[in-house]
């Protein structure tokens, strides 16, 4: 841009000088015709006019070249902008790929049953390890269908684990399964004929444990047996 402005300024200066030389040469011709000015002075004025004419052509060419150079520089800047944008996109893609190489557990947990070793190649869908959640802690109570009618979400519960018979854990009912356990079995029974022996079904109730100390968090393991007592608000307590 600076070169273009300088070339335009030089062109403007050359045009002004040429205009003055043209006026001087015109006056010299008139004086020469009257015999007042010598032939040498007339030739000097003409030579100066011709020289400034050539100088203006040079200045005009320089201005055009500077303008073209400016356009070329702008085009090159555009290309560089595109290259920068492409590089930024590649960098962001690399960051995403790097982030994908690090998998984090969805909850606080302990790694159990690790099935891979460092440096081993894995494929999509391959089981790598199992996670045992340590926070939050909950248990699944299988209440009879004759009992679950009095259980509601938010009710308080007391849980005793067989591994720690002398300690009771506080809990609260979080959710009830929308169907009995038989409906989720591999071969659910069908009683469409009407000839069947009635069996009391079980409904899973999720109970979250509250205020579990760190000593017990590390010792409570999935699969342990427990005794659950839910304090219903209208019908006393419900035990399982």
Short description:
The protein is α+β, with helices and mostly antiparallel strands and 240 residues long. The chain is built from three helices and eight strands, in the order ααββββββαββ. The protein folds into three domains: 98 residues, Orthogonal Bundle (Helix Hairpins), CATH 1.10.287; 29 residues, no CATH class; 104 residues, Beta Barrel (Elongation Factor Tu (Ef-tu), domain 3).
Describe this protein's structure.
With 240 residues, this protein is an alpha+beta fold. α1 runs antiparallel to α2. It has helices spanning 2-34, 39-100, 214-217, and strands at residues 108-112, 130-135, 138-144, 156-161, 168-176, 202-210, 226-231, 237-239. It has a six-stranded antiparallel beta sheet, with no helix packed on it. The chain is rod-shaped and about 145 Å long. It folds into three domains: 2-99, Helix Hairpins; 105-133, no CATH class; 136-239, Beta Barrel (Elongation Factor Tu (Ef-tu), domain 3).
């Amino acid at each position: 841009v600076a070169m273009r402005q300088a070339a335009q300024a030089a062109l403007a200066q050359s045009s002004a000088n040429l205009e003055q030389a043209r006026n001087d040469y015109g006056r010299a011709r008139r004086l020469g015709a009257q015999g007042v000015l010598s032939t040498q002075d007339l030739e000097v004025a003409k030579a100066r006019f011709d020289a400034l004419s050539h100088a203006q052509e040079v200045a005009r060419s320089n201005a055009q070249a500077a303008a073209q150079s400016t356009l070329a520089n702008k085009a090159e800047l555009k290309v560089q902008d595109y290259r920068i944008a492409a590089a930024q996109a590649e960098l962001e893609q690399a960051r995403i790929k790097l982030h994908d190489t690090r998998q984090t557990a969805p909850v606080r947990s302990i790694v159990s049953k690790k099935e891979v070793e460092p440096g081993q190649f894995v494929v999509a869908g391959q089981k790598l390890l199992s996670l045992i959640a340590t926070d939050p802690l909950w248990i699944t109570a299988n209440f009879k269908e004759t009992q679950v009618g009095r259980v509601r979400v938010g009710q308080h519960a007391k849980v005793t684990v067989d591994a720690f018979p002398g300690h009771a854990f506080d809990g609260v009912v979080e959710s009830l399964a929308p169907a009995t356990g038989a409906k989720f079995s591999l071969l659910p029974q069908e009683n469409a004929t009407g000839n069947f022996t009635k069996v009391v079904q079980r409904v899973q109730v999720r109970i979250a444990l509250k205020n579990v100390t760190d000593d017990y968090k590390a010792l409570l393991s999935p699969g342990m047996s427990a005794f659950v007592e839910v304090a219903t608000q209208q019908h006393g307590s419900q035990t399982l």
